[in-house]
Design brief:
This protein is mostly beta strands. It has 2 domains: 94 residues, no CATH class; 77 residues, no CATH class. 0% of the residues lie in helices and 33% in strands. The strands form 2 sheets. Strands 1, 8, 9, 10, 11, 12 and 13 form a 7-stranded mixed β-sheet that branches. Strands 2, 3, 4, 5, 6 and 7 form a 6-stranded antiparallel β-sheet that branches. β3 and β4 form a beta hairpin. The termini are far apart. The model has no long low-confidence stretch (mean pLDDT 90).
Length: 202
C-alpha cells in the first residue's frame, strides 16, 4: 500500500481531543507583546508572559524552562496601511497583533518526527513510542507557507517527566510502512493553565 509522504515538519496541528472528540476549531484570542521581535508561525508553541500577552516558547526538552500555553494557529494585526489583516503567521514590526491560540489542555495535535541530527529531515518511529514523552525540535518556520518548523525528535522517547509532550497515538495514513510512522499524535504535559500556583510566567 502506498502512503502519502510527509516532506517537512509543519509544527503542531490540532486534530481532536485526547478522548477522541472532534476538534471544533475553538481558539482564544490573546494579544501579542507590543513590538515583539520574533516571528510566530502556524503550529508554533506559545507561552503566556507577564502582562497577559503571548510570545513564542522555545520549549525543547524541558517543560519547566519554557512553559506552554498552547499552539498558535494564526493571528490578526494592523499593517502599515492601517488595514486589519488576518494572517497565517505573525511577522515582526506590526501593530495591534492578536494571536489565535488553541489552549485546551486536552487537545491532541498531529506532529512530524525528525532526526536528532537534522530537524528538517523527516524520519520515523515505531508504535512503541505511544505512552512515552518526547522532546520538541526547534526548526525554522516558513514565510512562504506561514507554517512552523517544529517537530518531535526521533530517539528522544522516554519516561522523563520534563519532556514536553506525551505521545498518545501514531498516524497510520502517512506511515512509511506497516510498522514505521512519520507522524505521531501528542498532548502537552504541564500546560500553564493547569499549573495551580500560577507563578510560571516569564
Amino acid at each position: 500500500m502506498a502512503y502519502p509522504t510527509v516532506s517537512a515538519p509543519y509544527g503542531f496541528e490540532p486534530i481532536n481531543r485526547v478522548d477522541g472528540m472532534p476538534y471544533a476549531g475553538a481558539i482564544r484570542q490573546i494579544p501579542i507583546t507590543a513590538s515583539y521581535g520574533t516571528p510566530i508561525y502556524n503550529g508554533d508553541v506559545v507561552k503566556l508572559v507577564v502582562g497577559g500577552t503571548v510570545e513564542k516558547s522555545a520549549i525543547g526538552a524541558n517543560v519547566t524552562a519554557q512553559p506552554t500555553l498552547g499552539v498558535f494557529v494564526g493571528c490578526q494585526y494592523v499593517n502599515s496601511s492601517s488595514q486589519l489583516v488576518q494572517a497565517q503567521y505573525y511577522p515582526t514590526g506590526v501593530n495591534s497583533a492578536v494571536a489565535f491560540v488553541v489552549l485546551d489542555p486536552q487537545a491532541a495535535f498531529k506532529v512530524a518526527v525528525t532526526t536528532s541530527g537534522n530537524t528538517s529531515v523527516v524520519t520515523s518511529v515505531t508504535r512503541a513510542v505511544v505512552g512515552t514523552n518526547m522532546e520538541i525540535a526547534t526548526g525554522s518556520g516558513s514565510n512562504a507557507t506561514g507554517n512552523s518548523g517544529l517537530s518531535v525528535v526521533s530517539g528522544s522517547a522516554a519516561n522523563t517527566a520534563l519532556l514536553p509532550v506525551r505521545v498518545i497515538d501514531v498516524v497510520p495514513e502517512t506511515a512509511i510502512n506497516a510498522t514505521n510512522f512519520s507522524e505521531v499524535i501528542v498532548k502537552f504535559n504541564q500546560p500553564q493553565l493547569e499549573i495551580t500556583t500560577g507563578n510560571n510566567l516569564t
